[in-house]
Amino acid sequence: MLFRQLEYLVALSRERHFARAAQACHVSQPALSEAIRKLEDELDVPLVRRGRTYEGLTPEGERIVLRAQRILADRDALRTEVGALRSGLSGRLRVGAVPTASGAVAQLTGPFCAEHPLVTVELRADLQSRDILRQLRDFELDAGITYLHQDLPEGFQAVPLYQERYVLLTEAADRPAPGEAATWAEVSRLPLCLLTEAMQGRRVLDELFAEAGVRPSPRVETDSVAALFAHARTGRWASVVPHTWLHVFGVPHGMRALPMTEPDRTVPVGLVVAAREPESVMARALVEVARRTDVAGILQRLPGD
User: Fold this and answer.
1) Half-sphere exposure (CA, 13 Å, Cβ side) for 300?
2) 244-268 mean pLDDT
3) Which residue of 73, 87, 143, 239 lies most exposed, with the fewest beta carbons within 10 A?
């Protein structure tokens, strides 16, 4: 049995298509198919349900993929740890983040890259919370940044980073007076552009609107925080955005950012990693940086305060 055969099987499980799996592994489709057939012969069990097209893995194949993912992750961790002992940490750190938290990721990747100059960071910034947990479980991510207001499932551990709070982006001819704020009830009556209901960030907003006894009726919905700013910038729509994104985009010209009140509540955001042994060397290094970095303090003040 070769690592390569396990890599091909894992890729096929992920891509659910022979040609795409072969492309992801940088081999021809016949080479990938033949390697998986040899693996089936060695294990004396069918792994793939074959028809005119790919029909999925057999129950045995699904179980073996789980084993294969762990074997490959342990191999990569061994290589990384040996390399770190020899010349310092190197390789690729894979981080996933929910869109509303991706604006804060730079507060971690900056000091991490300064400490580990041989590491390349791959950021996937458009994931939903459940996708982050799934990819951590399946060894596809080293760490994730997501909401912590609900208990994490067993097998994960978290480092709190900051409390997400929300601001209203709205058109303004003049700067707001000191202490001016907007209530959730008032905002619900504005022409709004919000995240889509499928996203965790939107579900958090809906909970806060409901706590105020109202339900928003956005005219525009999007899965991109950048699109929220773009629509607000036109002056036709208002939007509710995480305060962290003001550190990325600033307050658009001609707009103002008002704190949201009644209720005046925040939502915890943190770094999540898989709790497993042996632990990921990359994840451990990022957790150490997170514990030393005052992300909340950096994000506490809004630009222009």
Assistant:
1) 5
2) 84
3) 87
Q: Are 135 and 255 in contact (CB under 8 A)?
A: no
pLDDT tens digits for range 158-170: 999 999 888 898 8
| Pairing label, strands 143-147, 267-274 | antiparallel
Where is average pLDDT lowest: 108-112, 134-138, 198-202, 289-293?
198-202
Q: What percent of the chain clears pLDDT 70, i.e. is strictly above it?
A: 94
Q: Cβ distance 200 to 133 under 8 Å?
A: no
pTM: 0.70
Q: What CA–CA distance (Å, rounded) separates 248 from 104?
A: 9
Contact predicate 232/255, CB 8 Å: yes
Contact 92, 285 (CB under 8 A): no
Nearest by Cα to 256 from 235, 227, 287, 278: 235
The token pair that represents 130 in the structure block: 């459940």
Residue 36: Cβ within 10 Å count: 21
What is the Cα–Cα distance from 188 to 167, expressed in whole angstroms? Answer: 13
What pLDDT digit, counting tens, does each position of 16-73 carry? Answer: 898 999 999 999 989 999 999 999 989 989 998 887 778 889 999 999 988 888 888 8
- Alpha-carbon span 35 to 2, nearest angstrom: 9
- If you write DSSP's letter for every residue of the chain in order, what string do you get? --HHHHHHHHHHHHH-SHHHHHHHHTS-HHHHHHHHHHHHHHHTS--EEESSSEEEE-HHHHHHHHHHHHHHHHHHHHHHHHHHHHHS-EEEEEEEE-GGGGGGTHHHHHHHHHH-TEEEEEEE-S--HHHHHHHHHTTS-SEEEEE-SSPPPTTEEEEEEEEE-EEEEEE-SSPPPTT--EEHHHHTTS-BEEE-TTSHHHHHHHHHHHHTT-----SEEES-HHHHHHHHHTTS-BEEEEGGGHHHH-SPTTEEEEEEESS---EEEEEEEE--SSPPHHHHHHHHHHHH--HHHHHSSPTT-
